[in-house]
């Protein structure tokens, strides 16, 4: 896996993934940025959420659950001072579908947390307290 991050100006950077996709990262105005993109630490959080949601959806699809929507809401706390790494991250999956089996949703979230999500597992290995929860929403047909 490869990536490149290029300085644009001020606190703005352009990241390009090895697969050819780009994203703008920028800082707040009070730190020389123009607030034109996500912050680098936000990118880490979003990456973790994407990784975990990919796992959960993949597992639920393999178990033939009729999922219509899946999202994860992330809430992170950071240490005071510099550096200010993440100390806690709460992940809550909201899975909407038809006749979803709670045991399958619970198992998908657990497997992501303990076996498949490299980003989440890496954060925990670094000492971040990561918690996982879920809600099931029955779709109105």
UniProtKB/TrEMBL annotation:
SUPFAM superfamilies annotated for this entry?
OsmC-like
Q: Which PANTHER family match?
A: PROTEIN YHFA
What single Pfam family name could you report for this chain, choosing any that match? OsmC
- What protein does this entry describe? OsmC family protein
